Amino acid sequence: MRRLLAAMKKEMLLLVRDRMGLGILFVMPMVLIFVMTLIQDAAFRTLDEQGIPIVIVNNDQDSLGNRIEQGLRNSDLCLFHNEVDGQPATEDNIVNAVKEGKFVIGIVIPEGATQAIVDNVGTIVSASIGMDELPTNDTETAEIIIVIDPVATKSFVTSVTSQLREYISSVRTRIMFETFDKEIAEIIPDDMREEGTNYDVKPAITYKQEYASELTGEVKPNAVQHNVPAWTIFAMFFIVIPVVSSVMKEKNEGTVFRFHTIPASYLLQSNAKLIVFVIVCMLQFILMLSIGLIFLPMLGLPVLNLGNSYLGIGVVALACSFAATGYGILIGTLFSTQQQGAILGSLSILVFSALGGIWIPSYIMPDMMRSISELSPLHWALDGFYALFLRGEGLREVVPHALKLFTFFLGCIALTLIVRRVQKNQ
Amino acid sequence: MESTSVIEVSGITKSYKGAEFPAVDNLSFTISKNETFGLLGPNGAGKTTTISMLCGLFHPTNGTVKVNGEDLRSNLSKVKSDLGIVPQDIALYPTLTGRENLEFYGAMYGVEKQELKKRINTWLNKLEMNKSADKLVESYSGGMKRRINLIAGVLHNPRILFLDEPTVGVDVQSRAAIMEHLNELNASGVTIIYTSHHLEEAEKFCSDVAIIDQGKIIARGKPSSLISENVGCTNLEDVFLKLTKTALRD
Known about the structure:
Chain A is mainly alpha-helical. Helices cover 65% and strands 6% of the residues of chain A. Chain A folds into two domains: 2-45 and 222-425, no CATH class; 51-187, D-Maltodextrin-Binding Protein, domain 2 (3-Layer(aba) Sandwich), CATH 3.40.190. A four-stranded mixed sheet of chain A has the order 2-1-5-6, sandwiched between helices. In chain A, strands 3-4 form a two-stranded antiparallel ribbon. The radius of gyration of chain A is 32 Å and the shape is elongated. In chain A, 39% of the residues are buried. In chain B, strands 6-7-8-3-9-10 form a six-stranded mixed sheet, sandwiched between helices. The mean pLDDT of chain B is 87.
């Protein structure tokens, strides 16, 4: 035990005095989380259809215009604006504003839109009670103009137009009842009618949305929910570089010569390295989570939601730490120079991370790439954190992810021992 | 001097993959207890390969090595604590202090904490390294690194000490200090196996030498006997040049 502690102390001292290594381990991922989250925030909002900026010109200033304005103002779907660069939005300036990317959609509600509905409904009601003829198709209609940025997703445009249709329909229905009421009032004497009918009655059919897991859909993937775990995993796997450097230095500086003649097993040395670097990975993990919990919200970004299972988070993080360190030890053993190990180690992590959905979430990858991403250990870890953070799952659900990562770690260590045996016999 | 063999080498050969000739070719010799045995030879003669096999770093392709009667291949872990190694390369961590390096290696050899502290201080004083012990090794001169490298190999009081060119690249003062303390160690009963290109140093220090070339022992005996056996030679360097010729080696 004393030998193990001495070897761990040595590893810790070497790491603390390696400023470049510390930079790679702690500063680089912190910068990546800040930069990538800020850059991707807008893209994720579009992708997730949350808080997308839209601008409205309400020239109607009547029931329909006010209903649309109020509805979109209260909607989670978009961020409501009625000004462009501090000036009231107009039919003229919103086209350019959308073209310049300031808004994804611009809506112009024309003057007299409500009156057009009133006229239309009035004619229909009069016709239905035999007082007038049905309106012909060439009757004048008010036209709502929707200006769309080509980058807007089809589903978002459909959602907005559906909402508009719903608002128009509800206003039209209300006007229709009011008109009926008025027409009937002219036919039936006042004393036979009930005064002040409220047509805003509870709808006969409602719908209830249920989510398959516990977080009831309130927490949706956003830039923070993706980038914090993603870049944390990336940073944890980038521990390959300092691990390779540590293994290589010992090989090249002759210390390995003394190790092999010491009455302590090579496994003791490897275990000390493993324990220290796993501790470092866990520290990285805590630091990166704190960025998502404390610092990103200070920049106006959403706070990282950790889900319900701290134990699950700990298990996936620990499995990820072992997998990353084991991979580093394997790479350090496989190659004969630090340059080879560092280059191939970092390149392989870049490839694993790209495939694993770190850069771009795998759920927006093509089917074939999504299947390939299943092979990346970084994907197993990210999927584990998605399960915990986004789907609100618990320890039991992430055990398969953790097992995959631990198996990967054991595979790396087994391969390391084989490679070492072959190298020793050469 | 007792004549008990502490190391028995029987027909060891080491062939590296892809090499045309074996680095060490069928060597057999014994080293007696308390001897200062010099393994001398030009570059590429097979000295470091031989030392590496004697201290169990790797196994010979053929042949056996016995240390204190134990076969090294099957009982390596049993004999390891009897062996001390001072490798040719500085086997120290540059970003640790001299003391931290010594504490680490001492602990690896299982020396008890308080005893280790005492031994480290004793050796640092002996080799005049106490003032620099808490500085990083990367800031040391070549001689200082060599002295710490030596201490790291002897902290656990080994019975057999392997020294692979321990004084290479050091100044006269450091070399004198190192050799003085090696003599002290030998006087205290430590068997020393030593390689060097400093033949004058070897002549003074070694009780027995073997000259090795192209993986084979070409001469073996006390330095004085080898000098007298080779007509026209007045020192070990003359003997060495006579036997290994003057052609430059890779």
